[in-house]
Amino acid sequence: MKKRDRLVRYSAPERINHWIVALCFVFAALSGLGFFFPSFNWLMHVLGTPQLARILHPFVGVVMFAAFLIMFLRYWRQNLINREDIIWAKNIHKIVRNEEVGDTGKYNFGQKCVFWAAIISLVMLLVSGIVIWRPYFAGAFSIPLIRAALVVHSVSAVALIIVIMVHIYAALWVKGTITAMVEGWVPAAWAKKHHPRWYREQRQRQTQQEKRP
């Protein structure tokens, strides 16, 4: 494929950041399910032993939050809801049929919902996780507060797992999305179809760069 026929969507640092979040999520989610469901205790071995999992699980969670925070600071402006997102949402029946509507920028309404749901879930997980984190912080809180934090932590974890499952499904459903996060580029035709406004912005940037001496 010629260079002109493809657009850079994510740089190498952006992709590394994304896969750090993904890897931490897998370790945290699997070990967390092992804590929550007795029949899933074997999942704790993903971090070595059950004892080691109890030690490492919160640290993995903190790394995941820190890595996602970098993503948040980098992408939050592009994930603000605008008029085109309302059009996209009203025509969700067409989206399901793999038809594109509206003048979508770098992210569509569905992707934006995943982004904001993920950051809200992660904030809730971090705050509640600190309250229940033994032996470092839990001793500073009352038993009722720790119990409430356990509920919040569990509900937030389930919410995040569902959000990530939707994210993975959408990435597999829209052909070409995986390539963007693995190799960093997308075909120009893909960008024009799924993210027309972002496509025009990138083409304009390319044209300006080509005109420079």
UniProtKB/TrEMBL annotation:
Organism, as annotated: Pantoea phytobeneficialis
Compartments (UniProt record): Cell membrane
One GO CC annotation: plasma membrane
EC number: 1.17.5.3
GO molecular function, one term: metal ion binding
Family assignment from sequence similarity: Belongs to the formate dehydrogenase gamma subunit family.
Domain Cytochrome b561 bacterial/Ni-hydrogenase: 9-184
GO biological process, one term: respiratory electron transport chain
Protein name: Formate dehydrogenase cytochrome b556 subunit
Gene that encodes the chain: fdoI
TM regions (residue ranges): 20-43, 55-76, 113-133, 145-172
Membrane topology term: Multi-pass membrane protein
Any Pfam family: Ni_hydr_CYTB
Key words of the record: Cell membrane, Electron transport, Heme, Iron, Membrane, Metal-binding, Oxidoreductase, Transmembrane, Transmembrane helix, Transport
Broad class of enzyme this protein falls into: oxidoreductase
Cofactor(s) required for function per UniProt: heme
